[in-house]
Amino acid sequence: MIESGLALIANASPTGLLLLFWYFFVLELPRYALSTLTVALHALKRDHDAPLDPSVPVSVLVAGMNDAEGLQRTVLSLREQTHPNLQVVVVEDGGGTAMSRLAQDLQQSGLIHRYLATGTRGGKAAALNLGLRACQHEYLVVMDVDSSLDCDAIDRIGRRLQANPAVGAVAGNLAVRNADRSVWTAFQALEYLSAISMGRQFLALFDLLTIVSGAFGLYRRSAIEQAGGWDVGPGDDSNLTLKLRRAGWAIDFAPQAWCLTDAPVTLGALRRQRLRWSRSLIRNRWRKFSGVFNPRMARFRWRDLVATVNQLFFNVFLTFSYFAYLIHLLLRFGTDAIVFIVAIHILILLVHAGSFFLTWGVVGRPGTLGLVVFVPGWTLYQGILMRFIRLEAYLGELILRRSYTDPFYPARVRAAQERF
Fold this sequence. Notes:
By secondary structure, the protein is of the alpha/beta class. It has 15 helices and 8 strands. It has helices spanning 2-11, 14-20, 22-43, 68-79, 98-108, 124-134, 153-163, 183-205, 221-227, 236-246, 267-288, 302-333, 337-363, 375-400, 411-416; strands at residues 58-64, 86-92, 114-117, 139-144, 148-149, 167-176, 216-220, 250-261.
């Protein structure tokens, strides 16, 4: 079957390739090639932002639930930061766990400044809003309890906020810490390189970035307070980012501010995570913030409209259009359509391979090159598996509003939240 697909590509004329594989050339190729090439060219221009002023105090808000091992690693990475002026606040969703005991010990030993717990589970948003009250400084780093930072990460991310008073938040760069745990974590490591290290950098160049990941980001505290803090999720990080954009703040990305995070090891855990993320796209960008499509709204901004359309097009539209294209091929060519489908994914593999090496050259992070052996499998992971998961999530949210029954948040919190 692979040989047939290669023969189909090799024997077709340029015009024939375009007519047969219009979906790839019109929709898939620009998605990967344009953003990667743009970021690569921009990388030739080095970051000349001045180092973060050492006298600037920074609060660090670490949120999580019963993860003592992650907290230990996170605090150690904070102790190694080159920026010296940090206030570390740890907040737990719940309490009475091994994490609680460790956090109290860390507070007593002076390794963190404050430990808080919600007492009963209220969800991540409740923990973050509680912790915000204890944070004293205008510069506020927010990170998950299983995140750890490169030693210069806070300095690197702080430079972007310091350089531009119009910026309300800066997203940090993310890499997968446990890429060697399973084939699924290796695929996610490649995905993070493509979607975050390159994709979000591309969006930030055009002021189209709509998410500061909860794993690692820097905010102006005044901007968070202006936006009203965190709302109940899922997607509480993108939710806050959209609120900041609606309030008039710009969102930036710091490609050299690296954070390591653990990715789901099993397919089941990965599927649950991605269902939650994809449902939040429909819930937040399509329903909750639907006013972005209305030019008569007082806070209407073209940049927010373009940013939202970009997200919906490349995630929702391309997912549905892919399956529509498959149906079109099956109806037109019958069982021979399988050869066309194989040929399409061979073309996607070629683009992925080129994009990977270009990304490796731009990112330059140790260990990145070793992921090259997973690129062929990642093409199927990204091109087929993730599309099926996104399709399940989008249909479930559009028809059944599955995000309101997601056990990621406690039942009593889900029952009380506003519906859109």
